Structures are given as C-alpha cells and as structure tokens.
Amino acid sequence: MSTTADRQKTIFILGATGYLGSQFLVLLGRKSLGYHVVALVRNLDPEGKKLGQLRAIYEDLEVVEGTLEDKEVIEREAEKAKYVVNSASSDHPASVLAVLAGLTKQSAAHPGDPPLCIHVSGLGILHDKARGEFLEESAIPRYSDIGFDLAKLDPDAAHMNCDKEIAAAGARKENPIRTITAHPGWIYGVGEGITKGSAAIRVFLSVCKVAGFMGTWGPGYNAMSTIHVKDAANALLTIFEAALQGKADEGAEGHYFLSTDGPYVSMREVTKIIGDIMFKHGIYSQGGTQPLPAAATELFGESKRPYSVIWKVGWHLMGGNERVNPQRLKKLGWVPVETKKLPLLESLPAEVEVAIQEQNVLVQKVL
Questions:
Q1: How does residue 9 score in pLDDT terms, banded at 50, 70 and 90?
Q2: Residue 153 counted as domain residue
Q3: For residue 188, what are the domain limits?
Q4: pTM of the model
Q5: Residue 247: pLDDT above 50?
Q6: Which of 78, 126, 200, 350 sits at a 20 to 30 Å CA gap from 315?
C-alpha cells in the first residue's frame, strides 16, 4: 500500500469486530464502493477465524494484529490509509493520538490532499448532572449539532479527553486533517455484524451482578435519546459518502448527532424491562428495578480509586439527561428507519436474550 492509488482507496478501521464497527462493515460491503479495508484486530487466531468472520461481511479486507495500546501499529496504518474510521472506543486518548500522528505524517507527505478521520464519540458528552433525579424538561439543556462548540461544555465531560484532540487536529492549518466526530445516543438493537449485542446491556448486566437485581443510578428518572445500531451504522456510512463528495461538514463544523427527535427513554423504563426478563430466567431473585447500592455504582463512578475515565464519568453517563436536535444528518437526507420501526423498549427482550447467551458462552470458555 505504498502508491497514491492504494492510499486513496484504503480505509483503516478500529473496532471492526465490535457492535457498531462490524455493522458499519456490513453496510459498507453492501454498497460495493470498491474500498480496501484494513482492520485492527486483537488476539488473532492461527486458524484465521476472525479474518474469516470479517471477510464474510466485507470481502476486500486484511487484518493487522494489535490492541488500542499498540501505538506504533496504529500510527503506521493510519499513515497509509486516506480514511480512518474509529469506532473502537470513545475514551482512549492514546489510540486517538496515534491515529492523528499517523494522519499528520500522511498529510505532510501529500500536501493539498489531507486524509479524513471519522471518530465515534457519544452524546454522553452532553449529559447533565441530574444523578437520576426527575427534572422538568425546561430545566434540561438542549443542544443542536449546528453551532456545537466543545469549548462551551464541561471540560470533564465524558469523551472530552478524545473529542478535544480530534477538534484541535481538524482546526489546524499546518498538515491539516479532515475531521468528523459522530455522537450517537444510546445504540441498541440486535446487530448483523460479528458482535450482535449492545455494550450498554453488557454494562448493566455486569454492574447489576454485584447487586443481584437490576437497577438505576439514583431513582432513574433521567432519560436519553436512542438509535438503532443499523441506523447508527447507516449514519456513519452517509457521513462517509458525503465526505467523499465534499458535502460533509468537517473540522469546527464536523459534529454530527446520531439520534432521533425522541421519544426519550428513562433508565427506569429500560431497567424494569431488563430486570423482569432476568427474573423470568431465574438469574435474579426479583424483577423490576430499584436504585443500585454504592457497591454497584462505584464500579463505574465516585470511588476513591486512582483516576480512570470510568471512575470519572460513571454517574455522569448513567445518571444524566441529554436532549439534542440532530440537524446535520437531516441535511444529508438521513432518516432513522430502523429506530422508527423498532423502538428501544420493544427491542430490549431480544437484546437481553443475546446478552445472556453471550455471557453463557464466555462462562463455558472459562470453564
């Protein structure tokens, strides 16, 4: 991949085997745009099973072994691919800086033809500090992605550690990088890619395992926007295609809210359904939902442990509200088809079944 032609037709993807990343690959494959994909994959097996799984959903693909900690690998691959899509983590500064370092080198080597970085963040960056308490709608801030400015947000907000680096790279004049940050709401639904179930459900099951019942951070009146994984992946593809055509907003204007106009779903509603399903399976001794004890919530917030991203934003993400107006995707003609067909609360039973099955598989592997 040393020629200009190869660079122009190569996409480097972080998170290709993940929930959103593999769904994006599914849709990219259906489009047949003719791009070669390089995927960062950890723990490659000698039998080539992961490569086979990835090529089953996207044929023109190669893998490089590495984790988000392998800065040299990430920087090297980012330097060679004109397009980078990072759906691996919203809160891993080292990998983001490695991507930007590689793209900076590429930009310097190809003046006038800057590379493109699409980074997946999240709407958790906008969450208030409601701590699960009920607030009137008029008291909850509302944001539009048009005119959105990171400088006006809490510097300690979720995802800010990575988003500010992306924004700075997109604003500079020397060795420029075209940057776009996608901010999805709660991504849900059973995916078609390699990872079928949502990370959000896995987080709840892990935390609530400590309590022995399903619960909320505080009373759980906080509510957020949602988006089906197929719509979220389609939004990424829509943004990517618009960028190829020079029609996407980038740099300072390159913030896209991946969301719908509502309805907003409260944590009480979500966790009640999950709790009832877990009770039905005999996993919990009681159904429904109630506020979680500190022993559970401290796994993701407000303990005395040394600093970590999870420690800092647990209550912020799980106990906050967010209200948004996703205008930029509407300008591109994007419509959340799957989200309208199957809302989150209707999707939860199937998602929880997938999560239970995944956990059972993991237990069997350990044993």
A1: very high
A2: yes
A3: 4-197+226-262+322-340
A4: 0.93
A5: yes
A6: 350
Residue 247 corresponds to which amino acid?
K
Tell me which residue of 155, 157, 151 sits closest to 128, measured CA to CA: 157
DSSP string, 189-247: S--SSS--S-HHHHHHHHHHHHHTS-EESTT---EE-EEEHHHHHHHHHHHHHHHHTT-
Distance CA 247, CA 249 (A): 7
Q: DSSP string covering 111-168, please?
A: TT---EEEEE--GGGG----TT----GGGS-EEESTT--GGGS-TTSTTHHHHHHHHH
Q: Dump the DSSP string for 15-61.
A: STTSHHHHHHHHHHHHHT---EEEEEESS--TT-HHHHHHHHH-SSE
Tokens 């890619």 -> residue: 193
Question: Tens of pLDDT along 105-119?
Answer: 999 999 999 999 999
Task: Write the CA distances from 161 to 21, 167, 171, 177, 323, integer angstroms.
Answer: 21, 11, 17, 18, 21
- How many domains would you assign to the chain? 1
Q: Which two tokens stand for residue 228?
A: 């089906």
CA distance 23 to 121: 16
Contact call for residues 107 and 169 (beta carbons, < 8 A): no
Assess if residue 128 is contained within a domain.
yes
Residue 25 zone, left/alpha/beta (φ > 0; ψ -120 to 50; rest) = alpha
Residue 47 has pLDDT above 90, yes or no: no
The answer, yes or no, to whether residue 203 has pLDDT greater than 90, is no
DSSP 3-state percent helix, strand, coil across the chain (nearest 5): 45, 15, 40
240 within domain boundaries: yes
CB atoms within 10 A of CB 171: 13
Does residue 191 form part of some domain? yes
Residue 360's pLDDT is: 59
